[in-house]
Amino acid sequence: MTNRTPIIGGNWKMHTDLESGMQLAGAIVDYVDALTNDDEEQPVNVVVYPPFPYLQAVESITGESSVLCGAQNLWTEEEGAFTGEVSPLMLKDVGVSMVLTGHSERRHVVGESNALVGQKTQRALESGLDVTLCVGETIEQRTEGSTLAVICNQLTEGLESVTAETIKKVVIAYEPVWAIGTGHTASPEDAQSVHASIRAHIASIFTGDIADSIRIQYGGSVKPENAKDLFACPDIDGALVGGASLSADSFNAIIQASL
Ligand code: 13P
User: Fold this and answer.
1) Which CATH number characterizes residue 84's domain?
2) What total of structural domains would you count in the chain?
3) Which atom of ligand 1 is nearest to the CA of 179?
4) Half-sphere exposure of 202 (CA within 13 A, CB side)
5) Which of 44, 111, 121, 199 has the most neighbouring CB atoms within 10 Å?
6) Measured in angstroms, how far is the CA atom of residue 18 from the centroid of ligand 1?
7) Residue range 53-86, pLDDT digits in tens
8) 95 inside domain
9) Cα of 40 to ligand 1 centre, how many Å?
10) 2 occurs within a structural domain
11) pLDDT reported for residue 2
12) 197 phi and psi, to 5 degrees?
């Protein structure tokens, strides 16, 4: 990592309930707030992504702290006849400031296309939310040697409508699909190599300065035991954590490893 502020996200996916989610948020807030002096810049940005029904309750705990409350998904319109979908304005209304787009489970379980991910990214930014755009290859794509082609397409289409101004509100998360929830983390060398290629692709779409300043998180079986080696890589600016974000002890240990 360089002078980019690390960013650690906890993606709770479809886990927790109201009580355990509020307890988890409380334990993270206590830990993160103790790291931050009022007059100093925050050493790390921390975002939690609870399931939709618990956003408001979790935000009531994170709201007064430096921990941000994020959402796992959104719809491409602000209002209308879209049964079962959630609008960016509703997210903002309950205090959400950041949203994931293109998570691999949305792409591969639900079937979201690169184009839809791009539309969601555009809508989120236009509605005033920050975005974490997730990209990553499957094991088949890696084996056939198309990792970088897949990721560059996901970036190009996902950032289609993003400008040199709005890119400041975007974080990229590289999450190789084969590393998610499997216990098989990418080695720091493999992850660093893809992160460097992502940064180069961002430079080709925007500018070198933008590429230097954008933060790229790694995700996929990040744990306290492997976080420090990943964060030591020059192009890895934090982590998007699934399983290990469901315990305050392990999530806080990952936050600590980024400092
Ligand atoms: P795991 O940390 O459980 O592998 O999940 C990673 C992830 O998908 C975060 O968005």
Assistant:
1) 3.20.20.70
2) 1
3) 4
4) 27
5) 121
6) 21
7) 999 999 999 999 999 999 999 999 999 999 999 9
8) yes
9) 31
10) no
11) 58
12) -70, -35
**Candidate list 59, 112, 157, 175, residue with the active-site label:** 175
In terms of residue numbers, what domain contains 233?
7-257
Give residue-wise pLDDT tens across range 141-179: 999 999 999 999 999 999 999 999 999 999 999 999 999
**178: which 2 tokens?**
């084969």
Q: Evaluate if residue 37 carries a pLDDT over 90.
A: no
Task: Say yes or no to pLDDT of 22 above 60.
Answer: yes
Task: List Cβ neighbours of 13 (8 Å cut-off, separation of 6 or more).
Answer: 51, 72, 105, 242
The ligand 1 atom nearest the CA atom of 245: 2
Helix, strand, or coil (residue 146)? coil
Closest residue CA from atom 2 of ligand 1: 242
State the pLDDT at residue 185: 87
Which of 48, 175, 230 most suits a substitution to test ligand 1, by most atoms within 8 Å of the C-beta? 175
pLDDT band for position 6 (cuts 50, 70, 90): very high
Q: Considering the domain boundaries, does residue 1 fall inside one?
A: no
Based on the residue annotation, tell me whether 184 is a catalytic residue of this protein. Answer: no
- 103 is an active site residue: yes
Q: Which two tokens stand for residue 174?
A: 């590289």
Closest CA to 67 of 8, 128, 144: 8
Q: Is the CB of 219 under 6 A from ligand 1?
A: yes
